[in-house]
Amino acid sequence: MSWRTKSNLAWLREQPGVKEDEALASRTSFGIGGPADFLVELARAEAIEKAIDGCASRDIPYFLLGAGTNLLIADRGVEGLVVRVVNREHEIAGTRVRAAAGLKMMRLARIAADANLRGFEFAIGVPGTVGGAIYQNAGCWGKEIREVLVEVEGYMAGTGKQTWNAAALKLGYRTSALRDGALQGGLVLSATVHLARGDGEEARQMMAKLTRERNETQPIKTKNCGSVFKNPPGDSAGRLVQAAGLKGAREGAAVISTLHGNFIVNEGGAKASDVLRLIERVMAEVKRRFGIQIEPEVEMVGRWK
Ligand code: EPU
Question: What total of structural domains would you count in the chain?
């Protein structure tokens, strides 16, 4: 039975701040995809918990949205309620920093440096939020969030507040139990990381250097979703795409970056279906030429079927 019953729709419509049939494309870094059936932006933990409890108890599908990076939303939009998590506070206690899920990783990297803490510089290359970074164990320049993670304050509909450490979260290469395992549907409220005391100026200089490097190797000023594919063991998806002669390949307004083969750029008005066709073409061509099966890392959300 569909979740779209009269009473469920009435409940959704009476939620404070909820918008119906609300555009999502502009809330993603790719700028692609259809609307959310319902969208609400929430900053208070209790309000977010209440929203997902309400959905779970009514069998209304829900999706937790952060900065909208690493996401490909279907042209036909997203079913149910999209909760945009915008809690952004942080607190520093000694060398530990607790950050709310909606805080951007890049912002937290600067906060840590300003507090003379080292070890979070890599986050200057992670475009998403803290919540999104936990969801997929985000990383850059060979460092991942799991390496500095103490614990996550989480929430499960029906069960309530929980504390998850890196082992419980099963953090792996661009994956976690939230993305692919027993914690699916779980909410990240905040994460605590442990850093080291150090020189903030050195941290800022390092971040400036890393950003220059990223500017030279990735099309960071374009509309994109970050890396499209996971790197296969011992190789680089970008290198394979280049070797397959696919840089600049196009489907509609979706084009493989000429700068970095693991990026697809939305030149303006690209459809999710264009991107999917391009992804499938790349996978088939890399397999045909090199016998290597690469897998998407971008999260495909919404009505694909
Ligand atoms: N390369 C090519 N052609 C290309 C792109 C890359 O030959 O078009 C070669 C490079 O010369 C280099 C190797 O492939 O020798 C690796 O490339 P790069 O250093 O750019 O790193 P990557 O493996 O492609 C990973 C992460 C990025 C992260 C960078 C920098 C994945 C899937 N990607 O990219 O993460 O920013 O390292 O640390 O793990 C993301 O996850 O969204 C993301 C952008």
Answer: 3
Ligand 1: does its nearest atom lie under 6 Å from the Cβ of 8? no
CATH code of the domain in which 61 resides? 3.30.43.10
Residue 126 CA to ligand 1 center (angstroms) comes to: 13
Confidence bin at 305 (pLDDT 50/70/90): confident
Instruction: Give the pairing type, strands 71-73 and 299-301.
Output: parallel
Tell whether 2 is covered by a domain: no
Q: Whose CA is nearest to atom 40 of ligand 1?
A: 227
Q: For atom 33 of ligand 1, which residue has the closest CA?
A: 227
Does this model's pTM top 0.90? My answer is: yes
Q: Does residue 174 carry a catalytic annotation?
A: yes
Q: Which domain holds residue 127?
A: 90-216
pLDDT digits (tens, 9 = 90+) for 189-236: 999 999 999 999 999 999 999 999 999 999 999 999 999 999 999 999
DSSP H or E segment with residue 160: strand 160-164
Residue 297 bears catalytic tag: yes
- Do 241 and 130 reside in the same domain of the chain? no
For residue 161, give the nearest of 133, 187, 198 by alpha carbon: 187
